[in-house]
Design brief:
- By secondary structure, the protein is mostly helical.
- The chain has a single domain, classed as Arp2/3 complex 21 kDa subunit ARPC3.
- It is built from eleven helices and no strands.
Length: 198
């Protein structure tokens, strides 16, 4: 009952509204970054915010739905990375539960933890489904590493980790900053913020 109870507790009506807003934010920012061919993604700010406010399972759902919807709308590549987006939300939620959004340095550490879990899931997808090339700005790094004579697996690992470490640290820091600006009534609605900040 503990796990089921945790899951039910994470999903209030307000949480579902927050997930919907997060999905729109993720897709809008992610699409902009994709069009600009930037070497980072910034498509999981909403996911991490939901995870910190409402818990790992809500964060996981926000990430999963973001990529599935994005895949239907415009980017089949995004749909393929739906498991990665889900893992980002789950990892961020557990980081919040262990107080890793208390201050700037812990938020940076949370970004690193999220990157590790993200990379474990993303590397096989990028490697085996796309041969290392996904059409993102990170492809430039892939091409550079391959031109240096690195093997495909090593190039994918380095590209995924380096592009995501910057992205997830920036995302975690942005979310930490956003949380600090939230009004007290929002803090009262989300008990998880107490462990994230206390």
């Amino acid at each position: 009952m503990g796990f089921i109870g945790d899951v039910k507790k994470d999903f209030t009506t307000f949480t579902w509204v927050l997930i919907a807003v997060a999905i729109v934010l993720n897709i809008a920012v992610g699409q902009l970054v994709s069009m600009l061919k930037l070497p980072i993604f910034l498509d999981s700010i909403g996911t991490v915010l939901v995870a910190v406010l409402a818990g790992p399972w809500a964060g996981g759902i926000a990430g999963l739905f973001t990529n599935l919807i994005w895949g239907v709308i415009s980017s089949p590549v995004a749909a393929a990375f739906a498991p990665v987006a889900m893992v980002i939300g789950i990892a961020a939620g557990f980081c919040a539960r262990y107080g890793m959004f208390k201050n700037l340095w812990l938020a940076i550490a949370a970004g690193l933890v999220i990157t590790v879990f993200n990379s474990v899931v993303a590397v096989p997808i990028r490697l085996y489904m796309f041969g290392g090339i996904t059409g993102s700005g990170a492809d430039f790094a892939m091409a550079y590493l391959l031109a240096l004579g690195k093997d495909l697996f090593g190039s994918v690992v380095v590209t995924v980790f380096t592009s995501n470490v910057i992205d997830k640290v920036v995302t975690a820091v942005l979310v930490w900053g956003l949380i600090k600006t939230l009004p007290e009534r929002i803090h009262a609605r989300f008990p998880l913020l107490a462990s994230a900040e206390s």
